[in-house]
Structure of 2-epi-5-epi-valiolone 7-kinase:
Amino acid sequence: MSTVALGPRHPVLAFDLGGSWWRVGLLTDACAVRLLCRVPAVNHRNTAKPVPGLQADLVDFVVERTREQRRRHGFDAVGVSLGAALNGHTGEVLGSAPLWGGGTAPFNLAAALREALPDVRWTVLNDVSALAVELLAHSLPGRRATAVTVSSGIACRTIDLRTGHIPLDPVHGVQGEIGHLPARFTALGREVRAHCECGAPDHLAAFSSGRGIEALLRELPEARPLRDRSPDDVVGAFTAAVRGGDPRARSLLDDFTRPLAEVLLHQAVLDPGVERTVLSGGVVDGLGDHYRDSLLRNLAALGLYGIDDPAYFARRITRASDDGLAALRGAGIRARSPLDLIDVHLTKGERREVLDR
């Protein structure tokens, strides 16, 4: 259970910069955030610019909104949640298929922001890391929990609920980029192959992320009835069909969630200390409990060796709040002093050890 101190603090501005939407909010209390604006993301799909130009647009957006809101609210700290793989030790952004397409696109966002506004205390973190930090605001059981997002992309983060510590690769500073794991996909029993936005074949994101699901719905022969029903909004037709109990749509949903279920099955074997996995993101929010139910059906069918407990995964896998603000809250919480994320019951030496990890 989380024992991290999250008492009331001064206002903090927070950004959630995803592949589809950019949000700005103000964290006014320990965990309360007020949404200030939500605009479509500037990404490689809607803006014909080279990657450095897209990155410059992102920096300009953050700087301009920070200047505007600082005049109104007088904060000195800003947290930025970014939908990109980044080195959590250095802050260097490694790449983002939803924002900038395939290949690597390294740049140091934190350094660019500090150069533009040096009198602001900047904190930049991966969006799923922000979701993991947000879990500290809840009374979750156990010592560790995992945040999973299924949106434009797909990824996860595991966090120590006692300290707020997110373990990272000691050199490369990454964790939980499951969207780029190899996966196998079948649609109503037929094997299908697809390319991820990063350019590689048969990644998890190609089958189970929001953009992967949309692409498959537009291409699979098995989804033709949904396309015929609503050619311009096949995702909306699929969501409505799932909610309406359409057997074919629900079978396709099981196909889309099966690759993620296999990843979570492996996690349960390799890290049983994770007692709660929290699902979030646009795909999860759009389908609601139908998404979790589908995931649980797949996990029940796959089975977990040595554990004869039908409710095992149902107890451990939950949905996050569907207000879409969790990453903003997490970025705001992390932007406060690092000691705010340390268990108040640890000794001074133990706190130092956590901060030095």
Q: What stands out?
A: DSSP finds 14 helices and 14 strands in the chain. The two ends are 21 Å apart (CA to CA). The chain has two domains: 12-134+324-356, 177-272+282-319.
